[in-house]
Hints:
The complex is a heterodimer.
Chain A: E1 9-13, H1 17-29, E2 34-38, H2 41-51, E3 55-59, H3 67-76, E4 87-91, H4 96-104, E5 109-112, H5 117-129, E6 134-137, E7 140-143, H6 163-166, H7 171-176
Parallel strand pairs in A: 1-2, 1-3, 3-4, 4-5
Antiparallel strand pairs in A: 6-7
Helix pairs in contact in A: 2-3
Chain B: H1 4-7, E1 15-17, H2 22-27, H3 34-46, H4 52-72, H5 79-96, H6 102-117, H7 123-141, H8 149-169
Helix pairs in contact in B: 4-5, 4-7, 5-6, 6-7, 6-8, 7-8
Amino acid sequence: MSYNFQNLQVLLVEDNKPMLNLIKTVLLSFGVGNVITSLNGEDGFREFCLFNPDLVITDWMMSPGNGLELTHSIRNHPKSPNKFAPIILMTGFSEKRRVLNARDKGITEFIVKPFNARDLYRRMHKIIESPRDFVEAPEYFGPDRRRKRKDEYTGENRRITDKDKVSQINITEIDLI
Amino acid sequence: MDIKHYNQKPKRNAKFIKAPNLIKAKVGIGGLSDAIIDRAQKLLESQTEDFRPLGEIYLKQMKAGIDKATALGKPTDSEEMIALILFPCVQLKANGGMFNYPLVTRIAERFVQFMEVVDRLDNETLEIATAFYTTIKIVLASQIKGDGGEQGEALVNELNNACMRYFDKHKDNLHPRER
């Protein structure tokens, strides 16, 4: 049993045509049934409204309308058909403050160029298997920006309320719980 | 009576929403096999697009940025001016490796890191920018695909050392967020 991407519709927004064709080729070889392409963020948003794709993969630096502006429109514009659409942002930047800036604009995943086929697949897999809750706040709408989960802690459980610990504590301690 | 604490606004006003996982419903389970991913990777590696015309465009933009900053005749910390040089180099870094020029990516990446931490452009930073520009231009003109071997390694080290020497001499030019 494996994924069937045949019914998947992906909007790919990239102003560099050779790169656009290259990524489209990769997506098609993954079996994606429909790849809609656009050369900038403004056109990209028009296509998004028209086709309501399942996934958006966009470059950052484009004009008119860069990848973050496109993300903002998808998340907040009244005409957006799906404010929850997963968005993968592709960029050459990898500096932390730039990544955080992109995260704060509501992107779902970030992929640094140059990347390989497996890198792209990993981002798609994450979106499919580990979707994040959305947060609606006065100054932000987008995927939950906190990545770390409570169950990621691998250290010793030392609270007396922890299941294993309860069996080891004495009656006085139980009285205190 | 101090009622400030009692009257303060709620600190968190966020609503959590479980978004529908429409993709999962469409694609099913099981992931993609390694064979499919490897085939996609082979397609990436075997593409024959000539990167040089595109690389030349970015190099031209980078040079225009360097010339504009040089023409000012004085140091500048203008973010726009830095972006004129930095952004085309980010494009070189991003695209080189995707089109069989990983050495372009490696060299451009060093320069991007340098530019991300400098506070202002002065004569010496512009000299370093020119050195990176010239080196990338040579790599493209000579069609050095792959990592460039020992020569490629030596080029990257030399440029890296130039950046290190600069910061040894000009610690004051680290952007405040990097200090």
